[in-house]
Design brief:
Blueprint: E1 3-12, E2 15-25, E3 30-34, H1 41-48, E4 56-61, E5 64-65, H2 71-77, E6 78-81, H3 93-98, H4 113-125, H5 141-154, E7 159-163, H6 171-183, E8 187-191, H7 195-201, E9 204-209, E10 212-217, H8 219-222, H9 225-232, E11 236-240, E12 247-251
Parallel strand pairs: 3-8, 3-9, 6-7, 7-8
Antiparallel strand pairs: 1-2, 1-4, 4-5, 9-10, 11-12
The chain binds adenosine-5'-triphosphate (ATP).
Pfam family, one: ABC_tran
Protein name: Iron complex transport system ATP-binding protein
InterPro entries: AAA+_ATPase, ABC_transporter-like_ATP-bd, ABC_transporter-like_CS, P-loop_NTPase
Length: 263
């Protein structure tokens, strides 16, 4: 198994934020992590990119506990797009993307031709090549998000974790990003709030509630009205997508908050 979380628990100041979370993702699989606000999704991801150390349990990449690897070795294995990933550093887009190669370089070693091509290709795939010379601080939120994803791709990780990567993205770039994640190569663990994007793009969906796993499996098995009501407290209808058959979650607003009906 490429990525495995084995009974990972996280405690901070005596509170258990994640409790005995186990999940696995095979090579090339795209797994969505969904759940209500505060259910522990970002905390679980932080253990994978080593911003947090589990109180117990382990994160394994290709069977090796990542805490046994040097930071440089684990940065070659795992790339992350985090919620804190906005950068205050005034790089150009191409400089920031090139930084994704850092875990693979010795000191100030310049990029090889192949690495420069890799950066150009990633910028093109994320539709930011035309911004290559722009300062990152001048970009819109969605443009910056796409640049950071290009940086994660040039890292050529075997595992890519992304925390709400569709934040700030317009609908075209959301759809393109999810399609890209399916074809990019690395095993992907992605936190998503949009259950329909998760259903369309992910092989499996893992649902967290109050720090613990409540369901995991293919989208059509997991995303049922009963489960969504139990976990999110929202009534939904789930119908098959007319073209793909993937489950589509339809929401209706509670009648109490509807505006009065028109004459
Ligand atoms: N450093 C910390 N100290 C104390 N509590 C924390 C800390 N970090 C996170 N928490 C709490 O842990 C819980 C889980 O947080 P986490 O960010 O993992 O949730 P999430 O599922 O990613 O939420 P969201 O959908 O809102 O991004 C929350 O209640 C949060 O307030």
């Amino acid at each position: 198994m490429r990525l495995r979380l084995d009974a990972v628990s996280v405690e901070i100041d005596g509170a258990t934020l994640v409790e005995k979370l186990s999940l696995a993702a095979a090579e090339g699989e795209v797994v969505a992590l969904v759940g209500p606000n505060g259910s522990g999704k970002s905390t679980a991801l932080r253990c994978v990119y080593r911003a947090l150390r589990p109180a117990s349990g382990a994160v394994l990449v290709d069977g090796r506990d990542i805490t046994a690897l040097s930071l440089r070795d684990s940065a070659q294995q795992v790339a992350a797009l985090t919620q804190e990933a906005g950068t205050d550093l005034d790089f150009t887009v191409e400089e920031l993307v090139a930084l994704g190669r850092a875990p693979h370089l010795d000191g100030n070693q310049p990029l090889s031709r192949r690495e420069r091509e890799l950066c150009t290709e990633a910028m093109a795939r994320l539709d930011v090549l035309h911004l290559a010379r722009r300062g990152v601080l001048t970009l819109s939120g969605g443009e910056r998000q796409r640049v950071l994803i290009a940086r994660a791709l040039v890292q050529e990780p075997s595992v890519l974790v992304l925390d709400e990567p569709t934040n700030h993205l317009d609908i075209r770039h959301q759809v393109e990003l999810l399609a890209l994640l399916r074809s990019a190569g690395p095993t992907v663990l992605v936190v998503l709030h949009d259950l329909n994007l998760a259903a369309a793009a992910c092989d499996r969906v893992v649902v967290l509630s109050r720090g613990a796993l409540v369901a995991a499996g293919p989208p059509h098995e997991v995303l049922t009205p009963e489960l969504i009501h139990e976990v999110f407290g929202v009534r939904t209808s789930v119908v098959p997508h007319p073209l793909t058959g993937a489950p589509q979650v339809l929401y209706s607003l509670p009648t109490a908050v509807r505006t009065e009906s028109r004459p």
